[in-house]
Amino acid sequence: MTRLIATYLVHDKKQDLVKKAESIALGLTIGSWTELPLLIQEQLKLHKGEVVEVIELDEDLGANQYLGGTCTRGLLKIAYPAVNFSNDLPAILTTVFGKLSLDGEVKLVDLHFSDELLSSYPGPKYGIQGVREKVGVIDRPLLMSIFKSVMGRDLDYFREQLRLQALGGVDLVKDDEILFDNPLTPWEDRVRTAVNVLSEAESLTGEKTLYAVNITGRSSQLRDRARKAIELGANALLFNVFTYGLDVLQELSEDPEVAVPILAHPAFSGAFTSSAFYGVSHSLALGTLLRVAGADLSLFPSPYGSVVLAKEETLRIAHSLRTDQLALRPAFPVPSAGIHPGIVPRLIHDFGMDSVINAGGGVHGHPSGTVAGGKAFRQAIEIALAGKAWTEVASDKKNYFELNQAISLWGGK
Question: Are 176 and 193 in contact (CB under 8 A)?
Fold first, then answer.
């Protein structure tokens, strides 16, 4: 029988994890068991949730203090028969965590899809390899930058900022997630402008740059807007998945006419991932679920900036996006915020070759401007992959001028 296995982190004040697991397994499926007549038990057997495993964890004194009493902490694994739900993400999340999300200190930390269930989800259309092919880069981490201070600015400003980022050697440029359709820079005009700017930049640098336009509006309009963007020449999309929904992302990813990579932005995800006791784990929300729904790249807070996640959390997200335990194309992890050229060696050490280095202020805030900011990152990637020390960089002012300026400003680690 095909099943979906959900894993929960529970802090149980009644200190009986087995009983808690059994109550979840029954409460989210058939509701009760022992009180039912044998005939009905037989009829409902295929629908009954099953406790797969109960793992008691060490006591957490900090959690006890926060929750105001002694709790038994543990991981509960519950199997849900696939016959209980239609095979779509809204139905699955409602089944495994719908009313349970309102029932005390329970956090959904993982979902394990059977191969049969997973076969209904194509996952990323391009994934790591496909995005690499789009930009023609196979031997280094990709470099992404973000538009800055574009609110209230016109298309001329947009055009110039995009041009400078492309000339600096950036592989992907994305809209700010809060840049919606507006009179000064309508999304159609942004796409038209980007097509011309990036073509001109490529003729000068010989390198391709993808521009991810923010697809926004009413949910019923998004598919048509995405198709229109492609028709106008868009080569990537940015999508605020957690305000629009995972199912909408899947619709876009599966649409054969939306034939470009999709960058999933984590905006709003903190509302249900940040707590240690409630909600959904970062690795499930920003890793597994986005990959299943079809994101080619997943942005998430880095462990280095002002908006941070713990390093172990970010590494779990990256693992979920790339692990071959999930029979889907791997997606790019994009740790973001607080990124500057001086920490590129640490980024590559932590997240590997198949990652995207994403910067805003680290590009635009360079002392010599945006083009120099992009060059500094490309130089940092080069020296990190070559295993060179910062002392070698400092002694080579000619080849690493922009990087030396960045290190003087932000430091290097």
Answer: no
Q: Is 174 a catalytic residue?
A: no
Q: Indicate which residue of 19, 20, 48, 99 is catalytic.
A: 99
Find the DSSP H helices in 255-399. Answer: 270-273, 282-283, 289-293, 311-322, 344-351, 361-364, 370-386, 390-394
186 with 275, same domain: the answer is yes
**CATH at 97:** 3.30.70.150
Same domain, 138 and 89: no
Segment 390-402, tens digit of pLDDT = 877 877 888 899 9
Domain final residue pick, 88, 118, 148: 118
The residue range of the domain holding 113 is 3-118
This prediction has a pTM of: 0.95
Q: pLDDT of 196-229, one tens digit each?
A: 999 999 999 999 999 999 999 999 999 999 999 9
